[in-house]
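Async update (no meeting this week)

Hi team, since we skipped the sync, here's where things stand on the single-chain job. The sequence we agreed to prioritize is pasted below, unchanged from the tracker. I ran it this morning and attached the output directly underneath so nobody has to dig for it. Comments welcome in thread, and please keep replies under the output.
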Amino acid sequence: MRVPLSWLREYVEVAPDVTPEDVLASLVAVGFEEEDVHRFEISGPVVVGQVLEFAPEPQTNGKTINWCQVDVGEANGGVRGIVCGAHNFTAGDKVVVTLPGAVLPGPFPIAARKTYGHVSDGMIASARELGLGDEHDGILRLADLGIDAPVGADAIALLGLDDVAVEINVTPDRGYALSMRGVAREYAHATGAAFRDPGERLWDELGQPEGGFAVAVADDAPIRGNVGASEFVVRVVRDVDPSAPTPPWMIARLVLAGIRSISVLVDITNYVMLELGNPIHGYDLDKLSGGITVRRARPGEKLTTLDDQVRTLDVQDLLITDDSGPIGLAGVMGGGATEISASTRNVLIEAATFDPVTIARSARRHKLPSEASRRFERGVDPAIPFVAARRVADLMVELAGGTLDSEVGGALFTAYQQEGIFLPKTFVPGLIGVDYTAEEITGALEMIGCDVVDVEGLRAGGPQWAVTPPSWRPDLTDKWTLAEEVARIHGLDRVPSVLPTPPSGRGWTAEQQGRRRVANALAAAGLVETPSFPFTTAAHNDAYGDLRGTAAGVPLPGIKLANPLDGQAPYLRRSLVPGLLQVAHRNLARGFTDLALFELGAVFLPEPGVEYGTATVPPLAQRPDDETLAALDAALPPQPRHVGVLLAGDAIAKQPGLAAVPVSIADVIDAVRVIAAAAGVSADVVQAESAAGHPALHPGRTGIVTVGGAAVGYLGELLPQVTEDADLHGRVYVAELDLDALLSAAGERVVAASLSTQTPATQDVSLVVDAEVAAADVRRALVDGCGALLESLRLVDDYRGPGVPDGTKSLTFALLFRAGDRTLTAAEATDAKLQGVQLAAERFAAKLRD
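Output:
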């Protein structure tokens, strides 16, 4: 909201020495946000001049210029010669002259310069050059503005170009501040200055006709039970002069407020909207057919709005209609068929109160935000339309020479009654944390316009006030919003900064702790976390599959968004790998070739044959019950959390005396082991002979990650074609695990274990098994067989060649045994080892290597 200070001073006392920055500071103190300061960016000398004579001079380029003699007053140098290219003036006209040294918006400095064979000692200005509008068909004639000022007078002050406006950001719940009336009231709250309400007029003074023009509301489909129009006031002004000039003070204020001047009749409606906060629409009365009916649109109806766009209407749109059909989109924009034009002689003025939800939906549906919809969707004071309609009529009589028809008019009015709010006397201090006195609380509420009545002893529940908010504050709905107003009026700087004490027993859940451990462990291992958007394409979903695709071997459907952020990627991801590849490509394009990335995030895995997204979303203003929430949850696909890893480039950079070591399958296996250790589980990696449902992975270089024999993820090398399609170079390794499954398998996690002081016993064992037997299976057999004395076991060699039979391999394991209460003997360690060897022999026919 832009607030011209000269306008603000009409309704509240603003000291002459107050700067725009001071005004902004005061408004910030009562909860608004400072945006900017707007000026006309013009400096003098800019004066009133009178054209004494001029001589047209045709030029060789086909243009005719006028060599003018202009009197700018003795104090400004008397008569000056000025070259002017406009032709819309005659001798004797008074004009605006910018003398050398002046600076116009742009900036455009004015100086005496030689042009067309003359020295032009200044410039005769147009409205656009002065910043007063877009009109540039000729110079600005003061007679066109109805001004007769002495020659040499300061034109900047005369045209209101010395005014300044402050701009504030108005939050959606404070729509009353989208008006000079509302801002002036808030400035009075902040400074204690006297406030004069322009909306206070006696009913008898308004002189509202009781009839003469038919007005009806026929809303057969109200939204949330609210009729589209609760109030509709019309007044008639006859015999207006649409060519009458808009006063310069009004033009200047409108321009500073961000609205261009169009014509006197339209300017008046915009001026009153800014003044009182009630949008006004004017109709050419002679173009109307019969009376006005406010109703919902019918299927297939169309309307040509003021921007010359033909709009297909929705059945929820609220329309202004006459006997010919729709003539306006209520609260958003009028129709072209009845607009005010240069031929208008009789004006019908409309001031109404519309349902905010209806107006907001129409404006968004048609992508047609307007100054009117901006105010209606935030709520307009239901007590102001009668005043606003009469204010517009009075200005049209004053500025456009019209006559108010006291016999013809109409109104529909729904009695407005604001619900009272019971406010316990101890509630505000207890909520805000400030010891406000009763006088401070009631004083603040009465200052903003509330009616406060002490009901102590008249109602159960302890000492209370009954508070009735004013009509212009629909945002005050409960005791919490009243408490906020008390804090705002008395200054938020009084609210102490006190850190809340968390209740005992709260903190991260076990799942949150597990996810934090995994992320911290990967970061400590040298990987970088790179969160990405969960959106992808159908091709990427099919190319990278998901963990269940590995198990089931069947493709799964994707979830497509109805309103995606990116139309090229409208699907929710089933895998983290596509996002990691995009991050890798972006880094590679910026010169980062050695990458170790990871991401923790949700994936979306719809069940085959299940239709999602079918639940009905309740209205925004309605609190959903448990059954509705359950239906909404059921309409969502499973969303497990996964952890993904991508490695590319070199694991160890080139160094003096050491060649670069590229990443390998061993590095991605180590990353999986880091994840498993942080999650608190023991994971095995089993080589897969094919991509096993993951067509992006290299057959033979793919591993399945298992925990307790159940698959929880995969790792491997991407196919060269996949790497090339992703614009990456060299070998790229990825891993993706179901983090929820890992943490679930971990169960209750012991945070720390006691360190044993007993001496360990070490043993080695080499077992010969069939080459097809996975080392992880043999390792598991040794762990199961060795029993509780085994502390750790590690594969140290996998040998295939001379010395072992063809089709077999020798696996060497390093075992460490320890007892918690004694030092183990070599015989005890050997017996435990042989038990493990025996179990491996039973499961896989393993033999000790000679």
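Quick observations from my side:
The chain has six domains: 2-40+164-191, 46-158, 203-413, 421-490, 511-605+640-746, 761-848.
Residues 549-554 have pLDDT under 50 and may be disordered.
Reply here if anything looks off.
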